[in-house]
Amino acid sequence: MNGAGAGTASDAFASTFAAARVGAAWALTDLWLELSPAVLAFLRSRGADEPEDLTSEVFLAVFEQLPRFEGGPDQFRSFVFTVAYRRLVDDLRKRSRRGPSIEWVDEHDPRSADSAEHEALDRIGDAETRRLLDSLAPDQRDVLVLRIVGDLTIDEIAAIVGKRPGAVKALQRRGLEALRKRLSDTRTPARPSRDSER
Questions:
Q1: Of 8, 81, 175, 186, which alpha carbon lies 20 to 30 A from 196's?
Q2: Is 79 a domain residue?
Q3: Do residues 45 and 88 lie in contact, with contact meaning Cβ atoms separated by under 8 Å?
Q4: CA separation (Å) from 115 to 102, 103, 108, 118, 126?
């Protein structure tokens, strides 16, 4: 945004943020509604074990630190994703030490779920996206997800992952090239069948 629109957005953030700092429920809810879908998408795309729970943990940590935060909407978004990234790293580290665990969730019981076909169709987009992201090097995957899902700048991502902006640009470029190659490999037309030649 620029011009009057940028001022309006900045003013709206300032008033919401001031109210959130003193614990106004409506302001905390506004911040949650604004950023939690992107944080959840980031954590889910990076394979968090319990992305909804981890999103809640991220915002609890963010809300605890509100009195010490300085900056505008862009800095706040970057701050939220920094907390999310660190919580994700901790979660992945913890899981690698203890191994995978599966919690019983009644609604996921296949005896009470929709048909397997329905469930497969619901998950195919997520599964394909995850498969593509998992095929990348971890650094490339982090950069692309923070850039696309988090909508963060190169400099903000560099601060989050602890790398120089030039290195982040290179990771983004290599990650996008790898994705383009994988996508073009899957779109190669099949050889025509003998029936089509008749």
A1: 186
A2: yes
A3: no
A4: 21, 21, 12, 5, 18
Give the tens place of pLDDT for each residue, 14-31.
899 999 999 899 999 999
Q: How many separate domains does the chain show?
A: 2
- Domain identity same for 91 and 170: no
- 6: in domain: yes
The domain in which residue 158 lies consists of 115-187
Q: Is the pTM of this model over 0.70?
A: no
Q: Helix H segments across 22-163?
A: 25-45, 51-64, 73-98, 116-134, 138-148, 154-161
- pLDDT in the model for residue 3: 44
The one-letter amino acid code at 62 reads V
Neighbours of 9 (CB within 10 A): 13
Please give the Cα distance from 157 to 143 (Å, whole number).
7
Least confident segment among 6-10, 64-68, 174-178: 6-10
Residue 50 lies in a domain: yes
- pLDDT over 70 at 113, yes or no: no
